[in-house]
Amino acid sequence: MARPLGPVRLKKASPLTIILGGVLCIFVIYFLVASGGSGAVSAARNANAASHPLSPPTSPFRKAAANGKTPPPPVTRYNMNSVTTTSNPIENKEHILVLTPMARFYQQYWDNLVKLSYPHELITLAFILPKNKEGNAATAALQAQIAKTQKSSDDKERFKSVIILRQDVEPPLQSQDEAERHKMENQKARRAAMAKARNSLLFTTLGPSTSWVLWLDSDIVETPPTLIQDLASHDKAIVAPNCFQRYINPDTNKLDERPYDYNNWQDSPAAQDLANKMGPEDILLEGYADMATYRSLMTYMAKPGESEQQEVPLDGVGGTALLVKAEVHRDGAMFPAFPFYHLIETEGFARMAKRLGWSATGLPNYKVYHYNE
Question: Where are the beta strands (DSSP E) in the chain?
Fold first, then answer.
């Protein structure tokens, strides 16, 4: 026969146990509120977040665990309303994405890049190079300079981040010599390939915090150190400096300069008439005697002694140096690799941006300089 149990007596908890339990409850409540209410990601999930500021907000998906379940990736929120593009980008800490398609590496290009006075912690560099022998050599030289700069003891030299992409298509020209690149018969294929490279570079690297995109060709070897803030100070959607080339004048045997980029222009009735007579796959080209467009070229608008602040409207732009508000690209303005109103690549980009409501501006007296082969 079971015996009835007597009254159960609970042992009185010590004051220390009560205090520890209360602290633990407060900690749990705080943790739940902080991780859920503010939109922040928990510490466990932050371990999965990519450290690269322009990488996707999650690390690559891992294989399923032993139980067949994969933990969900973290969710990152971006407030795009906080991204500004102003005439005073340094004061407003606006992030710059410098994009460079590169076939050859020029040390003068890199040296000039490092000398830019815009705060380097606000600059991301991104490059795209072809997968061929010349591209491999350029990639190796570029990586060596990146390692040297990013390991510098000077915080002001190191850039926020650096990205290198390799093209997944063969370049249409085997030689990158200047004479070969600029032959008229090579232009459509060459510039279509350039447009594809620019689009790949842009769409892969444009991050949610980017305010401005600076397109800078790998053979631009001399610019003012204040290039970025100078161009941004005009507060224009698309702004292009004037590209020249230094050379030894054979008539004077002295250092001189000559126009280089003919793609910054104002349209003309003659060019429009040519376009109206063209087939759907034909493109207009600038700077060739066989195709007289009679456009007004910005390269010939430069006047010694005139203000560098002078602005002119442009209908076409080149890509040697070009500052673009990131929202222009986010609106869909890209570089057509196909005839777009008989224009292609950078000139097609200017036309596409205009169709989207954005205008291009040129600075005829503000100069950058191209490498002279």
Answer: 95-101, 123-129, 161-166, 210-216, 220-222, 238-249, 254-259, 265-266, 296-297, 312-314, 321-325, 360-370
